[in-house]
């Protein structure tokens, strides 16, 4: 949270604009994912529950309220992704779709770079199969 004596944002969540921006990111991101030939097949046809979980997770991951943990417990994201073959190429594709989504919503380049840097760790942490 921001310090009332210093109105500068203190978390990435605040820096990017909070809930509205995270929601916009998720809404722009998933059509790209679904149409991507390498990662689209990993996702269900009804993407709405996935989008909602992503919104909850990213809110928490970027330093906002712990929405994901409040609803689902500890994220345990690597374990939740183990049933899927996540290759380095799929991690790259996921990050590429996010980069496109950030550009689509008009996120300032420096902030978009921070977001992508923050997401690289988990994206590659989920890799469980070599390409």
Automatic annotation (TrEMBL):
<dbReference type="InterPro" id="IPR044203">
    <property type="entry name" value="GlbO/GLB3-like"/>
</dbReference>
<dbReference type="GO" id="GO:0019825">
    <property type="term" value="F:oxygen binding"/>
</dbReference>
<dbReference type="Pfam" id="PF01152">
    <property type="entry name" value="Bac_globin"/>
</dbReference>
<dbReference type="GO" id="GO:0020037">
    <property type="term" value="F:heme binding"/>
</dbReference>
<dbReference type="InterPro" id="IPR012292">
    <property type="entry name" value="Globin/Proto"/>
</dbReference>
<dbReference type="InterPro" id="IPR009050">
    <property type="entry name" value="Globin-like_sf"/>
</dbReference>
<protein>
    <submittedName>
        <fullName>Globin</fullName>
    </submittedName>
</protein>
<dbReference type="InterPro" id="IPR019795">
    <property type="entry name" value="Globin_bac-like_CS"/>
</dbReference>
<comment type="similarity">
    <text>Belongs to the truncated hemoglobin family. Group II subfamily.</text>
</comment>
<keyword id="KW-0408">Iron</keyword>
<dbReference type="GO" id="GO:0005344">
    <property type="term" value="F:oxygen carrier activity"/>
</dbReference>
<dbReference type="GO" id="GO:0046872">
    <property type="term" value="F:metal ion binding"/>
</dbReference>
<keyword id="KW-0813">Transport</keyword>
<dbReference type="InterPro" id="IPR001486">
    <property type="entry name" value="Hemoglobin_trunc"/>
</dbReference>
<keyword id="KW-0349">Heme</keyword>
<keyword id="KW-0479">Metal-binding</keyword>
């Amino acid at each position: 949270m921001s310090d009332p004596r210093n109105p500068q944002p203190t978390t990435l969540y605040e820096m990017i604009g909070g809930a509205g921006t995270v929601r916009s990111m998720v809404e722009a991101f998933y059509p790209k994912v679904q149409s991507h030939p390498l990662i689209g097949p990993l996702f269900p046809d009804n993407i709405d529950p996935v989008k909602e979980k992503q919104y909850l997770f990213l809110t928490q991951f970027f330093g906002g309220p712990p929405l994901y943990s409040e609803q689902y417990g500890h994220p345990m994201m690597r374990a939740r992704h183990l049933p899927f073959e996540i290759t380095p190429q799929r991690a790259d594709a996921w990050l590429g779709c996010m980069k496109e989504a950030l550009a689509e919503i008009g996120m300032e380049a420096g902030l978009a770079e921070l977001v992508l840097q923050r997401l690289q760790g988990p994206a590659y942490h989920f890799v469980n199969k070599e390409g």
